[in-house]
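Field guide to reading this record: the first block holds the primary sequence, the second block holds the structure written as discrete tokens, and the final block holds curator observations. Each block starts with its own label. This record concerns MarR family transcriptional regulator, catalogued under organism Pedobacter duraquae.

BLOCK 1 — SEQUENCE
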Amino acid sequence: MPKKIEFHFNSPEDSPGYLLGQLTILWQRKQKRVLDPLDLTQTQFVLLCALAWLSRESDAVTQVDIANQGNADRMMVSKVLRTLEEKQFITRSEHKVDTRAKVITLTSLGESVLQKALKAIEAADLEFFNNPTFEMPALNKMMVNLIDQNKDVL
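BLOCK 2 — STRUCTURE
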């Protein structure tokens, strides 16, 4: 007979990690449903958003900039950007100063797809997180605080 496993929490519903995991799975499913018709994964969408945000401030956004913006693994970012380039959503060109870096730019097709994805995702997020028992700004503030508190994990 196996040893009795001891849990800190009395039930899964008492564990914030379990609940966050369940909520994340449901949220990702909703995002997938919205992004699939646009031929985007959630990761591709996030990296396109990072590129668009960074492009507002600079015309020489690099792969490293995109990885840093999203706290993402650089190798994963490289692979995803390669896929986005194959889909013709971005271009990669030589950096004027840093010969090791590539400048990443949204194409007009990429801008169009991203704009459609943003509208769909933002509507899906508002629907998903709409709950009369709490205010969304308070939820967002709590999540930002938790992210800041746990930056050492990155």
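BLOCK 3 — OBSERVATIONS
The beta strands are 90-94, 102-106.
The chain has a mean pLDDT of 91.
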